[in-house]
Amino acid sequence: MAMRLRLPDDLGAKPAEHARREGPGKQELVIEAIRDSQDLVGLKADDVLAELMDSDAEILDYLK
Questions:
Q1: What is the per-residue pLDDT across 8-29, written as a single tens digit (0 to 9) for each?
Q2: What is the DSSP string of 1-38?
Q3: Phi/psi of residue 2, each to 5°?
């Protein structure tokens, strides 16, 4: 599905800057952000916390 998206300057500047530094274009970064937000929409706070604790377990153990 084709879509034109006009971002305000404050939202468009960071993806453009990141794309220049890191490689993927603005479009890919915006698509990734939308996919990430869709994944998080249905999660409850406890689920998010459990996921973070699992993914960051090594760092959390180090900080203990």
A1: 888 778 777 877 887 778 788 8
A2: --------HHHHHHHHHHHHHHSS-HHHHHHHHHHHHH
A3: -85, 145
Nearest CA-CA partner of 1 in 46, 37, 34: 34
Distance in angstroms (rounded) separating the CA atoms of residues 16 and 41: 25
Of residues 36 and 44, the one with the higher pLDDT is 36
How many angstroms separate the CA atoms of 7 and 9, rounded? 6
| Torsion (CA) 8, 12, 13, 15 in degrees, nearest 10 | 160
Q: Could you say which DSSP state residue 49 is in?
A: H
How does DSSP classify residue 42?
T
Rounded-to-integer distance, Cα 32 and Cα 27, Å: 9
